Amino acid sequence: MQNVTHQIQVDCDHGIRRIVGTGAVRIFAALALLVSIFTSMSLAQARPPDSEIYALETIGTSLNAYTTTGSSVWNNHHGWSTNTPPDDPCEGAWFGVQCDAGNHHIVGIVIPNNNVHGTLPDATVWANLPQLLYISLNNDFISGTIPDLSVLPNLLDFSIIGDSDVFGQFPAYLTGSIPSLAALTQLQTLRIGSNHLTGSIPDLSTLTNLQTIDVSSNQLTGTIPDLTNNTQLSLVSFRNNYLTGSLPALAQITFLMRFEAGGNYLTGTIPPIVSLQYLSRFYVNNNQLTGPMPDIHNMPAMNDLNLSYNQLSGPIECLGVAAPCSSGLSQLIAIDVSRNQLGGPFPTLDGLGNLQYFKVSYNRITGPIKAMPAQQQQMISEVCPNPMNLTAQPGIDDYWPSTIQGNPNPWWGPAGAYNSCDLILRAEFD
């Protein structure tokens, strides 16, 4: 009886195990099927919405990415096609198209230097790309106007710098005015230089993340906007326009590295810049600025300063290390303050071991000239005309050689002629 009971127990255990085993297999198979289904669904969804793809096709058509024959003037148009239904631009690796990590959205159209010709479609097309972060068509041939960019609230970079042909002309360029940028609060880079844009520069106060703005070489009018809120700027270029008014305050832009506003009609004085310890290039030449030179005595990054062709007055102070100045301009390579009304004594150049270009001609500098430091003998310089008295300068020829790279040194003149700047042979180095 005991043996029978044991056998029944064994049979039951085996049966249960068989049942449980069969169920486990079925459950595992069901789970595998579900995983497969969800994976397939996920893969099917890992593609931008059709609205984004069709918007991209419309942009490609507007920029002549393809013609009816499938050819293109682009240097590279890989992936751009008129297939129906359209290919996945993320999986198909359309040239210049960037997608997010999950291939769910188009985030960039980056096609610089690609011989792209055409116009930008209107805002209704761009509105279908709400996740777009980057638009870069630099050095292509884009014409027409800039669309309303407020439909792209996440945009970080808008760059369409014009290109020119071998004759220096612009066969295609942006025209019209710059639209409002107020809604682009995430924008970091705006580069639309070398076009034919007109009108004024829009308000920038809401663009607190802006790091680069280049609107140079256009036909813009009006004033330079206030930059109080744009404290993240590092590169600013307003040069070669028709801008009027005064220069904006700059001291609050702590990380500013490059500021260009030359070639305009700006008036007033140059704002303080001495606190900008990262500033390396400062160009405000060819304006109508008045007042003194800005204090630059302790700017360790400064290497290129151009204040020429203005109406600046007062002395040239604190270039070298003579008291009360310091050696804070040790990286200075070029300085041009020519064509102003600067006076006072000739500045010392001691401590400026990297200086290569020095232009102070057409000013009112007086007094004796300082000897040329030996380490600067190959410097290209232009100091005349100025009403300087150059008498009693023994040995000056030892410091200022008669020629530099085959050009007459503007300091050099016949022996014994050092009594007037007018008697020194001068070479122009424009």
pLDDT below 50 for ≥5 consecutive residues: which ranges?
15-21, 34-44, 165-170, 390-430
Structural class: alpha/beta
Total number of strands: 21
Strand order of the largest sheet: 1-2-4-6-7-8-9-10-11-13-15-17-19
Order of helices and strands: HHEEEHEEEEEEEEEEEEEEEEHEE
Fraction in helix: 10-25%
Q: How much β-strand is present in the residues? A: 15-25%
Quickly count the helices: 4
Main sheet makeup: 13 strands, mixed
Which terms would index this structure?
disordered C terminus, 430 residues, 4-stranded parallel β-sheet
What does this protein structure show overall?
With 430 residues, the protein is of the alpha/beta class. The protein has a domain at 1-45. It is built from 4 helices and 21 strands. The chain has a 13-stranded mixed β-sheet with strand order 1-2-4-6-7-8-9-10-11-13-15-17-19, with no helix packed on it. The model is unreliable at 15-21, 34-44, 165-170 and 390-430 (pLDDT under 50). InterPro entries: Leu-rich_rpt, Leu-rich_rpt_4, LRR_dom_sf, StomDev_PlantInt_Reg.
